[in-house]
Amino acid sequence: MFKGIYTAASGMLAQQRKTEILTNNMANANTPGYKAEQTSIRSFPEMLMSAIGDTNVPVKKGLKLGQIRPVGNLSTGIYLQETMPNFNQGAVYETEFNTDFALIDGELPAGSSIFFRLSHPNGGEAYTRNGNFTLDGQGYLVTGDGYYVLSDTGARIQLPSEDFQVTEDGSVYVGNRRIARIGVAFAQNANRLVKEDNGLFRTENGQALPSAYGRANVTFGLKQRHLEGSNVDAAQSMAELLTAYRAFEANQKVVQAYDRSMDKAVNEIGKV
Fold first, then answer.
1. Do 138 and 198 belong together in one domain?
2. What pLDDT shows up at residue 48?
3. Which end of the chain is least crowded, N or C, by CB within 10 Å?
């Protein structure tokens, strides 16, 4: 079996997976709060190929010495090592709906991020940057999928109607009465979060993230009647998608070339 088939096939698999991720990014280019996935492709360790043979020494009894001759390095292919969300803030735009909110990043430590706090149906908390909320039949502030939005104390936020105001510091007012404060969580290392469906994130160990309010070197704000858009760069994603497709196609041609070589070896050379 030709070892090059495995090298080319690994390239096809990696590029296929990259294509799927880029396609998903482009499909969510208009999803509020969506964070684009970034891929990291890495090569497998190279193998040093050597030829082993014998060297005849012209002595009376005959002597053969083992000889190792270096042939060169052989690449064993590539693989998609990991995918990581890009937590850079997307563009903020106005919607005119009272139940829409956008988190505005201010001063944040490198690698960190902030999120809205949600109550997860399976227990614990989930986190999102999508502030496209609504009120359910009982007046609770929820996401489009029915996850309860939590306050800074971890309680559900219940409102009498959609006639309310939210200040920049997250305080919710009905008239002059302060009802609650929208919960905002802080992730010191956002890349350690586990991404779930519908733009949700959870911690690896299931523990809740600390509050972002009152933390040193952390500044942010909230904007009511605004949403944070996706941070997908459609033009760049399309260019990367075409590059991945061409790389897949090139590896595919290599596999086809090997296949033709084996076909000749079996059906033509074998008859001689």
1. yes
2. 64
3. C
